[in-house]
């Protein structure tokens, strides 16, 4: 697990860009956390760093957006989806065949997702007007385990202390 | 060029069945010559979705399948016509939820084949832009249209029939999405827009000064920040009066929308400002548009609430204009979840 802290939108985008340097075709990244915690901002930062020039907006209404950069970016949002069973309609398995897939509000459908994934949890810090975001990276399986140390190194600038190193 | 063709073309009288299933309403309508609404039937799934706190795609698709044929039959019956009187079927083929769109598109294709009438694919956003024309067919253009709904926030200049320029749109959340998410976060239920509208009448819109993102900066919108400000305010002041909170939130959103639409109308030499989309039903937004139009000598076009939200009459209206301008669609018409507004 890696804990990171940022003090605003630019920091969240920076972390996402750092992660983008390590992503590969077929990656699944879940983004969980409360309203306004930075999930869409992270998706924007990651897509931008992958060379997506289209505007990346919230997929809450459309459920799934697809962008083309250095890799294809599938940006999903299951805020409106009621539990794992209904997530089957989103065709996540098919999406995974092509590009990197980001899923916002993924906590409600976690059980239906493949175990090979990077889970990112977004929380609020103590901050008042300054938004302070806290990230937890967890390695769910084989697809990511080979990249654990690279990920840790790239996220060093944002690492919170003390930093866990369970992986 | 389309505009010119429109002025001189001999347009045959035609009766069009419109079908709309892009999100959570199953709707059918009969419209004559793109302007005279003979019937407009909407089967809402809001009661179903309220139990889940939002639109559930699988539930939505299933409910569309169950409702589509009865809704079409009711639209024909209410209009007092038979299917042999129809000249075409117009159907929303994007943007929207793919499963939901496919129900309408498949039904429209089947009816078009069986009844031997033209098929016309309609852009849902364009349909919203035409809602006002159903009430006032001779609206003067250019017109600034503020299209605000759960999935979209766009500032559009309509220069002539079927001729649009998108000045700006949202960088993150749609205005209606911000309403829904704030309502759910505060524990008010779904759909958030009407609930916040109602509760705001008991609140002080000046109680909390929420940020007005990008108000004097370009034409795009951003509603992610105001949403987060509401969250932060709740964390710091959990005892805030809910009426004050939502009234202040609503005021911030309306302020940005109206300020930009007003500036657009001035810079574009528009004859008026028109509201479209579900959020156009918001009382405070309507009031503010009316105010600025009065101050600036513009006309405020505020379609009836049932025309602002998803309906099939606006789909049939666009189908008629598109049929006149471009002819019918092919039977292999697809459904496109991310379809964009056709612009000049």
How does this structure look, described?
The complex is a heterodimer of chains A (167) and B (344). With 167 residues, chain A is an alpha/beta fold. Chain A has one domain: P-loop containing nucleotide triphosphate hydrolases (Rossmann fold, 3-Layer(aba) Sandwich), CATH 3.40.50. Chain A is built from six helices and seven strands; from the N terminus they run βαβαββααβββαα. In chain A, helix 1 crosses helix 2. Chain A is globular and about 40 Å long. With 344 residues, chain B is an alpha/beta fold. The radius of gyration of chain B is 20 Å and the shape is globular. Chain B starts with a helix and ends in an 18-residue tail after the last helix. The N terminus of chain B is likely disordered.
Which key phrases capture this entry?
heterodimer; A: 167 residues; alpha/beta; Rossmann fold; 7 strands; 25% strand; disordered C terminus; B: 344 residues; Nucleotidyltransferase, domain 5; five-stranded mixed sheet; disordered N terminus
What is the percent of helical residues of chain A?
A: 25-40%
- Can you summarize the main beta sheet of chain B? 5 strands, mixed
Here the CATH topology of the largest domain in chain B equals Nucleotidyltransferase, domain 5
Q: For the record, give the distance between the C-alpha atoms at the N and C termini of chain B, rounded to a whole number.
A: 10 Å
